[in-house]
Amino acid sequence: MPVYEYEHIEKPCGKGKVFEVRQSINDKPFIECPRCKGPVRKLMSLGNISSKKTNSELRNLGFTKLVKRDDGVYENVTARNGESRYMLRDKPETIPDFKKTIKD
Length: 104
Prior knowledge:
7% of the residues are buried. The chain has one helix at 55-60; strands at residues 3-8, 18-22, 40-42, 66-70, 73-76, 86-88. The protein contains one helix and six strands.
């Protein structure tokens, strides 16, 4: 069963400003907190997407994977021939060439 996040619109209760609820996908969203009955809204949350593919498989499928290594430094672990292995903030020449992977 999925977990959904809700946020108190006004004053938070003992559950906190944001709380999670396990609900069926068919259940109607809450409009009030189940604990304090205050108004709440459902939040958009990030989904959990997992890939079991290796970096070379991702590269062969046309994906680019950047891994943060430091403040403003990302390693392109799927770098192709001629691409910089590291993407650096404020250095546009290090941005991967997406024309190689994205076609019209």
